Amino acid sequence: MHLRELQLRNFKNYEEAIFTFSPGINGIVGKNGAGKTNLLDAIYYLCMTKSAFQNTDQANWRFGETFFTIEGTIEHGDVPVHLHLSFSRERGKVLKLNKKAYTKISEHVGKFPCVLITPNDSDLVREGSELRRRFFDTILCQLNKVYLEQLMRYNRLLQQRNSLLKQIAERRQDVSMLEIYDEQLASPAHFIAEERAKFTEKFLPVFLENYRLISRSNEVVSLTYQSALNETLSFVALMQQNQSKDLALQYTSQGIHRDDFIFEINGNPLKKFASQGQQKSYTVALRLAQFEILTQQSGVKPLLLLDDIFDKLDDERITQLMLLMSGGRFGQVFITDARPERTEKLFYNDGIPIHMIRI
């Protein structure tokens, strides 16, 4: 699978632009602020139906406009596929595959897998559990349509339960109504927790091997899934135990939306006891494991998007990453860099072909 062409209109800083890509490695170079990361985000958008950096679709149209479009032609199994994604104030989001609009946009997720590595990945270590859940949920949603449906169902019901808690506080609803939502939430909650636990077991050895390749060190790292449902009889029981707290807070304080993935090094929290280099190795290994798992499960090498990665890794880690690229492990790769001479030198010195795109 490879992206052959991309057309943008009113997307972020692009008024109109057309790009053609090599099926191998593409170097996207230009000054800071030129739009290199925005170009990667457009590719991500086309694959995942949403931005990797903005929470709302409106935040992605060009200043002063009220719509944007992203079009792409992807070679998938030697068959060219045309994708057209648009978002406007009047029509909302529309996604078409070969000119046929999806009834549910979520049906598109997983058809064209991609992996994005950015400097912001360090937040997986430094920030709260929400980002770590999102990382693993994004992988699972690409691999498992049922997981995506159950996660969307859980989030929708959770929003309704939180709204009910506020109404109860305002004495507009009865407390007994909570039991209905607790019972409805139980099925997707247990399914999601079980799938996360099973996936973590499968993901762990792949991650550990990638960490070893990137870091070239002997420290012991670990990754474990932590869920309140592992410590209680059922989701309903968990909700009942925390009902008084939820009524006081006016939101649901426990559930699979509070789960976490624990990152450790030598038995200690990665956030507190790892150097910056060790944290970088950890997050890059997470992403490379994501790439490998998606490849194994889908039979297709995902598009690999590397944003400003050479500026955030030391020479040894860059060398290890270049070795992986030269070994043919990846399919189509997109790399941004504000220093074109560095990118050219790295690849040309190792005899790795690269298609340079200057913005």
Tell me what you see in this structure.
This protein folds into 2 domains: 173 residues, Rossmann fold, CATH 3.40.50.300; 176 residues, Glutathione S-transferase Yfyf (Class Pi), Chain A, domain 2 (Up-down Bundle). The chain is built from 11 helices and 14 strands. The chain is 44% helix and 23% strand. The relative contact order is 0.16. The model has no long low-confidence stretch (mean pLDDT 92). Strand 6 and strand 7 form a beta hairpin. The two termini are 24 Å apart. The chain has 359 residues and is an alpha/beta fold.
List the helices and strands and how they pair.
Blueprint: E1 2-11, E2 14-20, E3 25-29, H1 36-48, E4 67-76, E5 79-88, E6 92-97, E7 100-101, E8 114-117, H2 123-126, H3 129-143, H4 145-169, H5 177-215, E9 221-226, H6 235-241, H7 243-249, E10 260-265, E11 268-269, H8 270-273, H9 276-298, E12 303-307, H10 315-326, E13 333-337, H11 340-349, E14 355-358
Parallel strand pairs: 3-13, 3-14, 8-12, 12-13
Antiparallel strand pairs: 1-2, 1-4, 4-5, 5-6, 6-7, 9-10, 10-11
Termini gap: 24 Å
CATH architecture of the largest domain: Up-down Bundle
CATH superfamily of the largest domain: RecF/RecN/SMC, N-terminal domain
Q: Which geometry do the CA atoms define? A: globular
Compact overview of the structure:
The chain has 359 residues and is an alpha/beta fold. The chain has helices at 36-48, 123-126, 129-143, 145-169, 177-215, 235-241, 243-249, 270-273, 276-298, 315-326, 340-349, and strands at 2-11, 14-20, 25-29, 67-76, 79-88, 92-97, 100-101, 114-117, 221-226, 260-265, 268-269, 303-307, 333-337, 355-358.
